[in-house]
Amino acid sequence: MLEKLKNLEESFRQALKNIDSEAKLADLKARFLGKKGELSAILKTLSNASMEERKKLGQAANELKDRLTARLEEAKLILDRKITDAKLAADWTDITLRRSLMAESVKESGQHPLSIVQRELEDIFLSMGFDILDGPHIETDWYNFTALNIPESHPARDMQDTFWFKDMKHLLRTHTSTIQIRGMEHKTPPFRFVAPGKVFRCETTDASHEAVFHQMEGMLVGKDISVAHLIYFEKTLLSEIFQREVEIRLRPGFFPFVEPGFELDINCLICSGKGCSVCKQTGWVELLPCGMTHPNVLRYGGIDPEEYTGFAFGLGLDRLVMMRYGIDDIRLIHSGNLDFSRQFASC
Ligand code: FA5
Q: What pTM was computed for the model?
């Protein structure tokens, strides 16, 4: 029966590729998940199985149902976006003049420090054989929480204050970890990728916290990947980034999508560890949480955790920029002040 579930998922994936209207999407949902649909038909045969088997197969079927539902929601979002794009295309403005004015101001102000650091990081990762992925800012509950082993009513959902849309189904992603699932869906192990981008949290701002900030997610999956690989990788990465010895500390950290999880802190380069408003007088700045990918997350991504293991990390890009250039307030990075950006023109 597991084989039947696998085949069903595969034919669902194939059928999804041909969906180009809401009506077809509704038909697809009925065909696979409806009361008289293919999944229900398979479930009906469960009554012949033993109690033990029924439990195992029932769980696999429920997980499959969650995955298919998420893919359908995702396809609906893409369709909606296409409709909006078509409307926007019909109502366009020629921005050529504005673009050329923007080009002038870019020449004058230089690159933003975030762009400089992000590009440098991308070069480092490309040289290490990583791919670079991108993903949407508006996400579903599935990608931001459930598939990352954070089910509904799990207390970890409160760790990141979320901006929800009115429908309570969509949200602004609170972290780039969403791309772990999206990446796994599209890749076959072994693989490694990073995903830089904006994230959003309903937070009060201070010298080291913004409500809109940037992260770079990373994930590596293969055979026999261990904590030793993770630690070696992080040390190599930091020496590439800072081009000098920096003091770091690794301590246990809790994230439901990794086990074990770690927090990697860097000795505050603003105050040289003496204590300031950026490091909240502790001398340390949280920079690179990471850990070994939880088997449930691999499963949700369609990867067999008996065969493959992996690690993931989520680099705080703004904090890295602050450490790199000695910027003592994150709000300067997002101020849009050209005098601020001009200082980095020749960096
Ligand atoms: C996460 O967001 C996890 N998704 C990271 C992760 C990925 C863990 C993969 C394990 C495996 P956290 O909430 O700690 O974790 O944020 C990650 C980093 O983003 C922090 O270390 C910090 O550098 C940065 N960060 C967090 N909140 C803010 C904020 N409000 N403003 C600026 N930077 C922030």
A: 0.75
